[in-house]
Every structure is written in structure tokens, then in C-alpha cells.
């Protein structure tokens, strides 16, 4: 069984810690190659929201023909209880599927079914009141590697009318709950929801910066042009990396004692944060 479970959320066929996940409709195979070439850390072929009910079966067949073991993809299946769930699971046994994204995750039964049927790692999407209530147990199911936040569907389920400014302050508490649940379950930092304003790079950057500040480690993208911005926000900046190096070097030179760096006192918690920055940048801590 391909578990790949770890604190960095790695899974076979994917970068160790994806920062930008790009959705592509399963019934648009002409977009698959473009998505793979977009630079996204992980491509999610979507059998759920992006595909009309009458096109589900054909989309699944199209995806089956396009799957390639040498370039595995994440697949967002249809939710448990839908007419397409079982057939989607059967498809996801294919070695060309790197991991399964489970929408409307609301309990451990569906998550366990995905794991036990596909033998793949799972990214449950928390996007309902029931999902929030069951989130802690969902996060602890063996095979779950990362939680994702379904902001649009959650707002709908809870009757929340977010301000048109796009900041989604109304969802702040729920985002923080995902971060906490992920940490308690020793999962990688969760994946934040989509930004629907495709042609508003400033809004996208603000959204991604909010996600990172709250403790998210990645974000879902719905267009290739969103990928670079998301990756840039979630990657440590050169200035941040330089700071982390100064902190670690000064701490080592002080023999592990508290030391001042850039006019600020540095003790062990600050050093641990600096080491995390270096790890995020792929550097030795």
C-alpha cells in the first residue's frame, strides 16, 4: 500500500511538498499537457465540480486513457454517496494516479474506503459543517497526507455571505481550525481553497499571503497563470533565507546560548523557526 505519510506530506510521483495544486477538468484532455507544463507542483484532474453530471462517465474514460505511470496525477473524485464514487475509486487504482482528493469529506468511513480501495494517499477536502466537526478524526486516518479547505462550499453550507472585498475574514476561524487539526495529526500544513478571481493578480497574491500567514502550506489553483504567484508566496524569499542562515550561524557560534541577531534576541524557538525556513527552501538546516 503506497502510504508515503510524513510530516512533509510527500507522496509518490509528487514534489516533496507541493505549494501550488492546479485543477484541470477531466473532460478537457487537451489541457492535460498544458497543466503538466505549467510548473504546478501537482496537477489535479477533476472528476467532480468541473464536470457536468451527464459527462461524468465519459470524463472518467478520457482520464483512464490519458493516465501515465511515468507522470502520475492527483485525481479529485466524486463524493461518497454519489452514483460515480465506486467507478471513480476503481479508476484510481491505476498506477498513473499519485493520490486521491476526496471532496465533501465528512467522516472516516469514506476516507477509509478510498484508502482501502485505491491503495493511494488521500487529501480530504473539508468543506461542510459536518466535515469540520469530524476533521480531527479524518486527519488521523492512516493514508491521509494533507487536508484541503473548500472555502466556497463551506461558506455555502454555513450560510456565510463573505464580503465582496474578497478577504474572507468570515472564514478566518475555520481556516485556523484546519491548521490546528493538521498540526495535531502530524500532517503537513494544509492546502487553502481557490481564488476565483482569475484576472486579479493582486487579489490572488493577497489571498496566498493570508494563507501563508495563517499557517497553510499550499493553495489550490484554477488557472495556470495563478501557479507562479502562489509558488512565489509560499516559497521563502531570499531575504528570509538569508535571515535564517544568519540566525543559525550565530546560534551555533554562541554554542547554543541566546544571542542577538539584527538587533533582536534569538533563542531556541527562533532558531527552530529559522531551521524550518531553510528546510522549506530545500537547504540544510
What this model shows, in words?
- By secondary structure, this protein is an alpha/beta fold.
- The protein has helices at 32-36, 56-66, 85-91, 108-118, 129-139, 151-158, 172-184, 201-214, 227-234, 238-253, 268-280, and strands at 20-25, 42-46, 73-76, 97-102, 121-126, 148-149, 191-192, 218-221, 259-261, 264-266.
- The chain has an 8-stranded parallel β-sheet. A two-stranded antiparallel ribbon has the order 9-10.
- The longest helix is centred in the last third of the chain and has 16 residues, at 238-253.
- The two termini are 31 Å apart.
In DSSP terms (H or I, runs of 4 or more residues), the helix count works out at: 11
Cα-to-Cα separation, first versus last residue: 31 Å
Cα radius of gyration in angstroms = 20 Å
Q: Which consecutive residue ranges, at least 5 long each, have pLDDT under 50?
A: 1-9
Structural class: alpha/beta
Order of helices and strands: EHEHEHEHEHEHHEHEHHEEH
Approximate strand percentage: 5-15%
Helix content: 40-55%
Q: Care to count the β-strands?
A: 10
Envelope shape: globular
Name the average pLDDT: 91
The major β-sheet equals: 8 strands, parallel
Strand order of the largest sheet: 6-5-4-3-2-1-8-7
Amino acid at each position: 500500500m503506497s502510504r508515503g505519510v510524513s510530516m512533509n506530506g510527500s507522496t509518490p510521483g509528487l514534489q516533496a511538498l507541493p505549494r501550488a495544486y492546479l485543477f484541470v477538468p477531466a473532460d478537457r484532455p487537451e489541457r492535460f499537457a498544458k497543466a503538466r507544463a505549467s510548473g504546478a507542483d501537482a496537477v489535479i484532474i477533476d472528476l467532480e465540480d468541473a464536470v457536468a453530471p451527464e459527462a461524468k462517465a465519459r470524463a472518467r474514460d478520457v482520464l483512464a486513457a490519458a493516465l501515465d505511470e511515468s507522470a502520475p496525477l492527483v485525481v479529485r473524485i466524486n463524493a461518497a454517496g454519489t452514483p460515480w464514487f465506486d467507478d471513480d475509486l476503481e479508476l484510481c487504482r491505476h498506477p498513473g494516479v499519485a493520490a486521491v482528493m476526496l471532496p465533501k469529506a465528512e467522516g472516516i468511513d469514506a476516507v477509509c474506503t478510498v484508502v482501502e480501495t485505491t491503495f493511494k494517499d488521500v487529501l480530504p477536502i473539508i468543506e461542510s459543517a459536518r466535515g469540520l466537526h469530524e476533521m480531527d478524526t479524518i486527519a488521523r486516518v492512516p493514508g491521509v497526507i494533507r487536508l484541503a479547505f473548500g472555502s466556497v462550499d463551506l461558506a455555502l453550507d454555513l450560510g456565510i455571505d463573505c464580503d465582496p472585498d474578497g478577504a474572507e475574514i468570515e472564514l478566518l476561524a475555520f481556516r485556523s481550525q484546519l491548521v490546528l487539526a493538521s498540526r495535531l495529526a502530524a500532517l503537513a500544513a494544509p492546502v487553502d481553497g481557490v481564488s476565483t478571481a482569475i484576472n486579479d493578480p493582486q487579489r490572488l497574491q493577497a489571498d496566498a499571503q493570508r494563507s501563508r500567514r495563517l499557517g497553510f502550506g499550499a493553495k489550490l489553483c484554477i488557472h495556470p497563470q495563478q501557479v507562479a504567484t502562489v509558488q512565489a508566496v509560499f516559497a521563502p524569499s531570499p531575504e528570509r533565507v538569508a535571515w535564517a542562515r544568519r540566525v543559525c550561524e550565530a546560534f551555533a557560534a554562541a554554542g547554543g546560548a541566546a544571542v542577538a541577531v539584527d538587533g533582536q534576541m534569538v533563542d531556541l524557538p527562533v532558531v527552530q523557526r529559522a531551521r524550518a525556513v531553510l528546510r522549506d527552501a530545500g537547504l540544510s538546516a
